[in-house]
Specification:
By secondary structure, the protein is an alpha+beta fold. 26% of the residues lie in helices and 22% in strands. It binds flavin mononucleotide (FMN).
Length: 364
């Protein structure tokens, strides 16, 4: 099972949803960087369950502890281990689901692959696995912010059929995003989204959504042709988040309906470098950043575990009706904003280190 992501900034996540705890080991974080738990906790708080009526009520404080790789508040360059204890496990909620695979969850595929699965919860398929990614992403973000002044901001741009107008991509900050519990910076849309989530929850159902993301102050030249193009790595990073179904970079699928004359981003002089007048490329050309803002969006499906009765079959193939128990998210996007930002940070930190290595290529 591949639980490791990255080449130089290498992150391994560990832990199951209802086990002792979850976390990450980061190998390759540069030394001499100031770091303590307060750099990591804010993003974990934005991901944690039970943060509003729109999320699962599972009560997890998700307090992070740094177990290694940091001495006196300074990174040593050795592996950094981050751990979060699970405190609110309720394995009994999952008794029935051991016999009946949840439609569109990972119970059936894990059983087919390993012949065994975690006895409760989704094991590694649960969103609790993403605690490790968000903790590691916070460190990657700190590195990117200190070395390059890179800013990463994601927000909920759609829930079900409700689409919010685009905010100003150059000035949007996380404070604007966090003003509503649904994490949409446009207040009228945020209200409608909240209503849609609560209505689905009351009906025992769930809804999907879209998260958009911008990465600003990106130096030109990040991305490794040809198989590790930044587009390819962003797609891998985003589609590895549970419940994702699609990613669009820059103009995305809409670009396929345009003519080249309208879609081309013509060059203009911007300070000492070239920039582009428009940004349909989403800041990436030839798999390499061009210095413009990176823009992309990620589609999330409605979560699979719903309490409405579903006619299905058990693992033996017998007809049955599943009414899932347990505490579940009626919509994952409000909590997934921090996960998208974290995965973007992991891709950028890794590529920044790879580019730095190329710049220092002469070995003495
Ligand atoms: C933040 C977040 C919270 C999630 N919460 C739930 C949940 O409460 N119930 C559920 O069935 N799926 C939830 N999921 C999605 C499942 O983890 C995911 O659908 C499952 O692992 C199957 O994988 P797939 O949807 O990528 O195929 C959540 C995903 C994220 C990102």
């Amino acid at each position: 099972m591949s639980s490791t992501f990255g080449t130089l900034f290498r992150v391994t996540t560990f832990g199951e949803s209802h086990g002792q705890g979850v976390g990450t080991v980061i190998d390759g974080c540069p030394p001499k960087m100031p770091l303590d738990e307060t750099d990591i906790q804010p993003q974990l708080d934005r991901r944690r369950p039970a943060q509003s009526e729109l999320t699962t009520p599972r009560e997890e404080a998700d307090r992070v502890a740094i177990l290694s790789g940091v001495d006196n508040g300074i990174t040593l360059g050795s592996p950094i281990t981050l751990m979060v204890k699970n405190t609110d496990q309720r394995p009994a909620d999952y008794r029935r689901m051991r016999l009946v695979p949840r439609p569109s969850h990972a119970d059936y595929t894990y059983r087919m692959k390993y012949g065994i699965q975690a006895l409760s919860g989704g094991g590694r398929a649960s969103a609790r696995e993403t605690v490790g990614r968000v903790a590691a992403g916070a460190i990657a973000e700190k590195f990117l912010s200190e070395r390059y002044a890179i800013e990463i901001v994601a927000w909920v741009s759609a829930v079900a059929a409700i689409e919010a107008p685009s905010p100003d991509l150059e000035s949007l900050i996380r404070k604007d995003v966090d003003r509503s519990p649904v994490r949409c910076p446009d207040s009228p849309s945020a209200e409608k989204m909240q209503e849609a989530i609560i209505a689905a929850q009351k009906a025992g159902d769930s809804v999907g959504g879209i998260i958009s993301c911008v990465c600003r102050n990106i130096p030109a030249g990040l991305g490794e042709p040809v198989f590790d193009k930044i587009e390819a790595l962003l797609a891998q990073a985003m589609l590895s988040i549970p419940a994702t179904k699609g990613i669009e970079i820059g103009s995305g699928f809409a670009g396929s309906r345009m003519r080249g004359s309208a879609h081309n981003d013509v060059f203009i002089k911007k300070g000492a470098q070239l920039g582009t007048k428009t940004n349909y490329s989403g800041g990436i050309q030839g798999g390499i950043t061009n210095g413009e803002t990176i823009t992309f969006r990620v589609a999330f499906k409605p979560p699979a575990t719903i309490s409405l009765p579903q006619k299905t079959v058990d693992f033996e193939g017998n007809d049955t009706v599943l009414e899932a128990k347990g505490r579940h998210d009626p919509c994952v996007v409000p909590r997934a904003v921090a996960i998208v930002e974290s995965m973007a940070a992991l891709v950028l930190a890794d590529l920044a280190l790879r580019q730095k290595m190329r710049e220092n290529e002469t070995i003495r």
